[in-house]
Amino acid sequence: MSSAARTNPPKVVKSVHGIGVACGLAAGVWLGAAEAPTKLVNSGLSPYAISLCMVAGVFTARWTIPTLLKGTRQVFADLSEHRHLIPVAILAGMLWAVANTLTVFAIRDVGLAIAFPLWNTNSLVGILWGRLLFGELKGASRVNIVKVVLGATAIVAAAVMLGFSTIHGSGAHNRAVGGVLAAIGASLLWGTMYIPYRKAYISGMNPLSFVTVFTIGELGTMLTLVLALDGGTKAAVFHSGETRHLLFWLFLGGFVWVIGDLFQQFATKYLGIGRGIPLSNTNQMWGLAWGALVFGELAHADAHHRLLVVIGSLVMICGALAVTTAVATEQENSSMREALVRECARYDLDYDRVMKSYAGQSPAMAVERRAWWDYVILACAVGVFIWLGRNAEVPALSMNLAWVAALTAILLASAGAGGWLLWKSTKFS
Amino acid sequence: MITINKTRAILTDIHFVIPVVVFCFGLALLIALH
Predict the structure, then answer these.
(1) Which range is least confidently modeled, A59-68, A249-258, A392-401?
(2) Which of A27, A29, A355, A418 is a Cys-bridge partner for A264, taking CB atoms 3.0 to 4.6 Å apart?
(3) Using CA atoms, how far apart are residues A302 and A308, in angstroms rounded to an integer?
(4) Cβ-based contacts of A182 with chain B (< 8 Å)
């Protein structure tokens, strides 16, 4: 079949924009909530230790709910079919691990409420890569281009406002520059991490398979960083009694993160980088909600500082919304399919099969039943969380429990809605 | 099995090369801040 014919297939592919939007919103809620446990960085553990614990939590959590969604048979069959994507998924995990460590430095030096929105500019990097590498916005309508460009500009303006408020605010003046640099570095790494995400999905890989390899990449990288830069085998994280009491909260952060990351990956699959990532980056609003409402982070901030944070956040959200309400036209979809054709040609993939997977139509293996060992794996992973929970101590942080309950209810509602929509439309394909 | 040709296809793929370069930059920044 000619390239032109392949980029103009019959219209059997249903619209997945709504599914992508729902996943992006749910990702925002969950990724925002996942940041709360990193406040334990004030506990005395190193940023590397905090990151390693969170990543171990992410790795463990991958084998809980995600294992229920798709069993290991389906995941490994998918991985076998897309072996060439395994190094790419590991690389994505490595990028995530380094970026996450940078964010812990950023939180330590300039605080969560400021660092969090700053590294959310990774959506700008994502838009750039989406356009350059995957044909996103190529052939888009003028309205859509304006929405994306204005939205992206608004996000940059918001980030500058938030960064400016950091430099002139009270607190860690000596480390503010380092903290801002760390947050910007995290933005670049995370923005680039979406290249492997998108590559995997235009090759027909399932997000759950991708996450499986991804978590191995991030755990291996964090372990290496601790061994190389944080004291080696004598690192406090391996020996400190304090670690055991904190581990549950960091694992909990990892659990929340992996759910958010899964939604983000589905959003990337069904919306593309340029639209999916800004939408999931509404997590800054939820991060602020947890920080301000639950932990009272802005309680002692002056009016000017608060105003900057609020306006910056609102502008960033408006920008992200403008970007993501730009529904792709058929001409733009055709450009994106060219990227898919490129993958098929380069790696000798079956175009029709890849196109079906890309559009959320699950291949035949979706009907496979779970293996018995899936339930053993699930029980082990849940057992780890229970064991850690029994050793956990409630951190000495003042928390508003009413807001904890309210925000947790929103978490569950968003996961329920997003999960139901994904199951109904795509069977988590 | 990934053949030599596929290995070459991966290693010379811009989708692989760019993340590798950015990863190296991020690692250098991390070491500098350490």
Answers:
(1) A392-401
(2) A27
(3) 10
(4) 29, 33
How many independent structural domains does chain A possess?
1
- Dihedral angle sign, alpha carbons of residues A75, A78, A79, A80: positive
CB A100 within 8 A of CB A162: no
Per-residue pLDDT at A13: 46
Residues sharing a CB contact under 8 Å with residue A68, sequence separation 6 or more, in sequence order: A378
CA distance A228 to A213: 23
Q: To 5 degrees, how large is the angle CA A401–CA A407–CA A413?
A: 135
Structure ipTM over 0.85, yes or no: yes
Alpha helices in A70-136 (DSSP H): 72-81, 86-110, 112-119, 122-134
Which of A82, A195, A226 is the best residue to mutate to test the B interface, defined by the most B CB atoms within 10 Å of its own CB?
Answer: A195
pTM of the model: 0.85
Domain for residue A198, yes or no?
yes
Q: Which of A153, A82, A132, A138 is nearest to A347 (CA)?
A: A82
Name the token pair of A422: 């994904």
Determine the pLDDT at residue A312. Answer: 77
Residue A4, in any domain of the structure: no
Q: Could you tell me the residue range of the domain that residue A82 belongs to?
A: 13-426
